[in-house]
Write a structure and sequence with these properties.
Number of domains: 1
Strand content: 25-35%
Radius of gyration: 14 Å
Shape: globular
Helix content: 10-25%
Order of helices and strands: EEEHHEE
Largest sheet: 5 strands, antiparallel
Distance between the termini: 18 Å
Length: 115
């Protein structure tokens, strides 16, 4: 890892091999009018250990629902998005995705165990 992920990962696993990772997602859809910022916060990401890799998996569906994103229907498209996010989160505690529908910025939220 290019940074200390332990500040962002819940030290107590919700189940073996899966630790919650909180994040804030800002979604700015492309519209004909003025862009409308949408924000969701939650444990949408996973840590594979207390200080391991942080990834996007099943949380993508809940995040999309909270943000009002309804164009993510194809599993291959979802997997591509997860892979792009995972690669960026391996380098720094944020990820940015741009697509014809809008821009998403994912920022990791530090846990209480972070100094």
């Amino acid at each position: 890892m290019a940074y200390d992920t332990s500040c962002y990962i819940d030290p107590d696993p919700r189940m073996p091999g899966f630790h919650d990772v909180g994040c804030r997602i800002r979604w700015i859809p492309r519209t004909d009018g003025r862009p409308e910022l949408r924000v969701a916060e939650g444990d949408f990401l996973d840590g594979d250990s207390r200080d391991g890799a942080i990834t996007l998996g099943c949380g993508i569906e809940e995040a999309a629902h909270q943000l009002g994103i309804d164009f993510l229907h194809e599993i291959d498209h979802l997997l591509d998005i997860c892979e792009l996010v995972d690669r960026q989160l391996a380098e720094h505690p944020w990820a940015m995705l741009k697509c014809p529908q809008g821009t998403a910025v994912i920022e990791l939220l530090p846990r209480d165990n972070c100094e």
